[in-house]
């Protein structure tokens, strides 16, 4: 089960935002995230806000789409009443959980509500996450008919014993099949991988990378496994059933991924993400890293508009209760101060290939750049042109780079 939500100010029942949230909104993109918190089984490593059928406390999955649609309408009304200028959604992302546990018609209805509320910008990117065993060809065709443009499959690994450790239930042989179905339907395809699972060797990881590349997806994500407190995997490691993750091995795995993906024509554009070309980058996730605005729909979903961040009630039953009562589903929010916004700006923009503007750093951060170049952590040519762009070594030590940019030269 996911951990507690942040401690902050209570969110008002009417959801209205302070006047400052509207400042500069016309210069920021707007996205919509819809959280579908249902899973068939709970993976041992997962710390996301998700629930299996036995954990729903009387809430029905079949009612969820209608509840989310109510929040979409509520969101439109709140932004309008708060003076935030109307903007069409540039991106829509269905995440989870496993969104594709719901009928395709439910996802299409939810997407239609977003279209009705805000409209879509030209060429809007519309993505859903999916498990390889949660869709078939007909399901994917229905998504395309309903306006989806992209699917992100949770492949995680192609090696059976690694999938077993992660409690993933799909057959790795199914991944090429669902990718083919998605392409035939007309969807762009992303594959998500995880590395650093206890017991996973470098050769295992190579097998997963080569298997993913054999399907030639448009986009690949590769995330180092984080063992979150309270998860089944954390307890198994504490009991000695699995070894602790090996930082040096994970670094080797990252370097292998970058090498194989680069040789196959993929370019990194964020520390954990690669795309065949710029048009295949996840524009929705780029909106998070660039500090754009988004409305998050669903239990535990987070939203951000103009430096105001809020989050919904976590459990589907609590969420449903607020929706039925006509109240905002949000339970907490915070208005970020200037120092926090600057810290987050440096943290996020330094992770992407487009880089961070040197001139926007405080004096100490600008002075740190020469040392970062000397240490091989940022690209010299890009820095000379005024942008902080991480080298491969810098991506491995991204947190250290951020600390030096924020704290000044060492």
From TrEMBL:
Keywords: 4Fe-4S, Chaperone, Cytoplasm, Heme, Iron, Iron-sulfur, Metal-binding, S-adenosyl-L-methionine. It is found in: Cytoplasm. Its main location: cytoplasm. GO terms for cellular component: cytoplasm. PROSITE patterns: RADICAL_SAM. Gene3D superfamilies: Aldolase class I. Pfam families: Radical_SAM (PF04055). SMART domains: Elp3. One of its GO terms (molecular function) is metal ion binding. Residues 24-267 form the Radical SAM core domain. One of its GO terms (biological process) is porphyrin-containing compound biosynthetic process. InterPro entries: Aldolase_TIM (IPR013785), Coproporphyrinogen-III_oxidase (IPR034505), Elp3/MiaA/NifB-like_rSAM (IPR006638), HemW-like (IPR004559), rSAM (IPR007197), rSAM_sf (IPR058240). Coiled coil: none annotated. The keyword Electron transport does not apply. Probably acts as a heme chaperone, transferring heme to an unknown acceptor. Binds one molecule of heme per monomer, possibly covalently. Binds 1 [4Fe-4S] cluster. The cluster is coordinated with 3 cysteines and an exchangeable S-adenosyl-L-methionine. Belongs to the anaerobic coproporphyrinogen-III oxidase family. HemW subfamily. This is Heme chaperone HemW.
């Amino acid at each position: 089960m996911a951990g507690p939500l942040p401690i902050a100010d209570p969110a008002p029942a009417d959801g209205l935002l302070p006047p400052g949230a509207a400042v500069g909104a016309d210069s920021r993109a707007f996205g919509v995230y819809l959280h579908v918190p249902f899973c068939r089984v709970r993976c041992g490593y997962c710390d996301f806000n998700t629930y299996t059928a036995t954990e729903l406390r009387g809430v029905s999955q079949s009612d969820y789409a209608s509840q989310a649609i109510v929040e979409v309408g509520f969101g439109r009304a709140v932004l309008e009443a708060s003076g935030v200028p109307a903007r069409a959604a540039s991106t829509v992302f269905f995440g989870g959980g496993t969104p594709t546990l719901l009928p395709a018609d439910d996802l299409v209805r939810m997407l239609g509500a977003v279209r009705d509320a805000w409209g879509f910008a030209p060429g809007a990117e519309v993505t859903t996450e999916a498990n390889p065993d949660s869709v078939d060809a007909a399901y994917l065709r229905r998504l395309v008919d309903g306006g989806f443009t992209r699917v992100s499959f949770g492949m995680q690994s192609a090696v059976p014993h690694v999938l077993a450790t992660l409690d993933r239930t799909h057959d790795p042989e199914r991944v090429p099949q669902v990718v083919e179905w998605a392409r035939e339907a007309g969807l762009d395809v992303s594959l998500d991988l995880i590395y650093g699972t206890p017991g996973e060797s470098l050769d295992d990881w190579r097998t997963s990378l080569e298997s993913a590349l054999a399907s030639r997806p448009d986009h690949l994500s590769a995330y180092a496994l984080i063992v979150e407190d309270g998860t089944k995997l954390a307890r198994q490691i504490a009991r000695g059933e699995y070894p602790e993750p090996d930082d040096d091995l994970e670094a080797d795995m990252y370097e292998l991924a970058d090498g194989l993906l680069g040789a196959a024509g993929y370019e990194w554009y964020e520390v954990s993400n690669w795309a065949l070309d710029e048009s295949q980058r996840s524009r929705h996730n780029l909106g998070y890293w660039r500090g754009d605005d988004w409305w998050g729909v669903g239990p535990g979903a987070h939203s951000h508009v103009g430096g105001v961040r809020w989050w919904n009630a976590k459990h589907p039953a609590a969420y449903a209760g607020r929706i039925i009562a006509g109240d905002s589903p949000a339970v907490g929010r915070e208005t970020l101060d200037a120092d926090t916004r600057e810290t987050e700006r440096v943290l996020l923009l330094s992770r992407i290939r487009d880089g961070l503007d040197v001139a926007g750093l405080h004096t100490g951060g600008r002075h740190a750049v020469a040392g970062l170049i000397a240490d091989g952590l940022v690209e010299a040519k890009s820095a000379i042109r005024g942008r902080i762009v991480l080298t491969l070594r810098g991506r491995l030590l991204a947190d250290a780079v951020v600390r030096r940019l924020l704290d000044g030269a060492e």
